[in-house]
Design brief:
The chain is of the alpha+beta class. The protein is built from five helices and three strands, in the order H-E-E-H-E-H-H-H.
Length: about 140
Amino acid sequence: MKQNANSRRSGEIAREKLASILLFEVADPDLDLVTLTGCEVSVDRSFVRAYVTCEPERYESVMAALERAKGRIRSLLGRALGWRVTPELAFSIDTSTDEAERIARALEQRPPTIDVEKDEFGYPIAGEASGDEPSEDESSEA
């Protein structure tokens, strides 16, 4: 969605109001432990896309709960914002936290060859890779 400084500022205001509504006004158990990560507001303030995150196994139930409560949330948001137009709402799952967690796990499980000293071309240095002792094949040939 096209953004400018005014729509980004409006997005921050909408995010604060929407977070307050989700925390204090909506009493759906499916929306427990749901985090609002951001909002994008159209330039004319007629549309708000809200990004939420939760556990990956709860994506479907959270989206269904948000769809059920969308009318009430929109009504409360319209009153809280006080804009001339009450914006349409669209909710999306923000998977960036899942991607960050996946990357962190991958970095923890790095292969032992990462710690081997390498030359400028990325090849292991001979002393490190072979242990400075000739193998059985090399000693029998000499």
